[in-house]
Amino acid sequence: KFIVYCLEDASKRCFEEVVDNLCIVFDLNNFTLSCMDYQVLKNLIWLLSRHYPERLGICLIINAPAFFSGCWAVIKGWLDENTA
């Protein structure tokens, strides 16, 4: 619910300022495998693609640990090929 609130607030601000796209930054500092919840992430991707299509300008992932490349291999399969 918090993510939807943030996206709605950002969309409202973008509309007021005539901004077309959003930038989302995920800081994975201190990220561990126990933090990874694939189902939540899969639901988030579904939500964004269905309710906010074409709004994401760029998504940056910073401070990702080395093992995240394995996680990304799974996540990438859930994304539209133009998105990934």
From TrEMBL:
It holds the Pfam family CRAL_TRIO. Gene3D superfamilies: CRAL-TRIO lipid binding domain (3.40.525.10). Residues 1-84 form the CRAL-TRIO domain. InterPro entries: CRAL-TRIO_dom, CRAL-TRIO_dom_sf, PITP/CRAL-TRIO. It comes from the Eukaryota. PANTHER family: PHOSPHATIDYLINOSITOL TRANSFER PROTEIN CSR1 (PTHR46590:SF1), PHOSPHATIDYLINOSITOL TRANSFER PROTEIN CSR1-RELATED (PTHR46590). This is CRAL-TRIO domain-containing protein C3H8.02. The lineage of its organism: Eukaryota, Metazoa, Ecdysozoa, Arthropoda, Hexapoda.
